[in-house]
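Amino Acid Chain and Its Fold in Token Form
===========================================
Scope: a single protein chain, as residues and as a discrete description of its fold.
Amino acid sequence: labelled as such and written in the usual single-letter residue code.
Position: the record begins directly beneath this header, with no further notes in between.
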Amino acid sequence: MINCPICGEKLNVKTVLYDTPFFGKVLITTIVCECGFKHADSIVSEIKEPTRFTVKINRDTLYDKVIRSTSGTIKIPEIGVDVEPGPASQAFITNVEGILMRIRDIVETAKMWNSDNEEAVRRCDEILKRIDDTLNGKDELTLILEDPFGNSLILSDKAFKERMRDEEARALKTGMTVMDLTGLSEDEILKL
């Protein structure tokens, strides 16, 4: 039995295992209380081989799809960006342009928070210029998407996919609690 963190009453918990494209089997959990508290989560329940995708960001690749699982790490080395998964990491589907816009928003916020630090503002401006120049076709950056569980990908003819070495994969953050569900049936997983 799980009690509501708001009112203490018994929560209604529902779990369903879905077979989805790209991610494979996903465990979806919904928690609801009569007081109005709600929480939903999804966990990719399959672990594949660790993968790395690399693609040059330019006008030809801006609209290529990016699928990032909760364990995916995004890197853009030319501007020193590493977006690592944390405990509240969520999977998302976007395009390469969407990744740049997300990073742009984060850098704008960092610039605002550090407005009294001249060096930090200068560095933020440099990053923003590189992003804007890339979006406008005047520059080119590199997008690297690494996933120790192989559940992230870049859908692009121009993306290079490679298997990561095990030691490289172990060095990555996973952003989640890892459960080994190997050998369990769907019914056993749903009873967890």
In short: Residues 1-46 form a domain with the N-terminal domain of TfIIb fold (CATH 2.20.25.420). The CA atoms of residues 55 and 61 lie 8 Å apart.
